[in-house]
Amino acid sequence: MAEQKNPLTTPSPNADTQIVPPGSPHTHTEQPSGGHGGAFPPFESHTFLSQLIWLALAFGLLYYLMSKVALPRIEAILNDRSGRLSSDLNEAQRMKAEADAAGAAYEKSLREAQAKAQAIAQETRNGLSAEADAKRKTLEAELNQRLAASEATIRARTTEAMGNVRTIAGETASAIVERLTGQAPDQASLNRALDATPAVH
Q: Which of 54, 52, 15, 8 is nearest to 35 (CA)?
C-alpha cells in the first residue's frame, strides 16, 4: 500500500526551498522566494541614490511643466483679469464723469428754468399792475368827467332856478304893491328892489 503524503509537511515541488541539516548555524524558517521580507523599500540604503535621481528628474519635469504650461496659463488668466478689471474701472470712472456732467447740466437747466419762471412771473405781475393802473386812471378820468358834468348841470339848474325865483319874486312883489296901492309899480323900480335884495343860495 502506497504511503500518503501530508500536504502540510510535504513541500511543493515548485517551492524554492533549501534543506539545511539540523544543528547548522544557518538554520532559518523556510520561506517562498516570492515573499516580502526585510526593510521598507524606500528606506533601504542601497536605493537612496536611485531615489534621489528619480526625485530630481521628477522635480525637474514638474518644474518644466509648471514653467512652460501651467504658469503661462495662470499668468495669462491673471493678466486678462487685471485688464478686465482695469477696463471696468475706466468704464466706471467714465460713467461717473458722465453722470456728474449730466447732474451739473440738469442743475444748470433747473436754475435757468427757475430764473426764467421768476422773470416771467415778475413780468406778468408788472403787466397786471400796469394794466390795473391804466384801468384805475381811466375810471378816475371817467368819474372826474361825470362829476364835472354833474356839477355843471347842477350849476346850470341852480342858475335857472334862481332866474325863475327872481321872476316869481318880481311878479309876487308887483302883485302885492298893486293890491296895496291900487297901482302897479314900474318895472325899473321893481328891478332895483330885487337887485337890492340879497340872493339866497
A: 15
Cα–Cα distance between 135 and 129 in angstroms, integer? 10
| pTM assigned to the model | 0.35
CA-CA distance, 178 to 189, in Å (whole number)?
13
Q: Say how many C-beta atoms besides its own lie within 10 A of residue 1's C-beta.
A: 3
CB atoms under 10 Å from CB of 22, counted, come to 5
193 with 173: CB under 8 angstroms? yes
Interacting residues of 104 by C-beta distance below 8 A, sequence separation 6+:
none
User: Which pLDDT score is estimated for 61?
Assistant: 93
- What is the distance between the alpha carbons of residues 190 and 170, in angstroms, rounded to a whole number? 7
Domain boundaries, the chain: 149-196
Burial 81-119 (b: 16+ CB within 10 A, else e): eeeeeeeeeeeeeeeeeeeeeeeeeeeeeeeeeeeeeee
**Which amino acid belongs to residue 21?**
P
* pLDDT tens digits, 105-157: 999 999 999 999 999 999 999 989 888 989 999 999 999 998 899 888 898 88
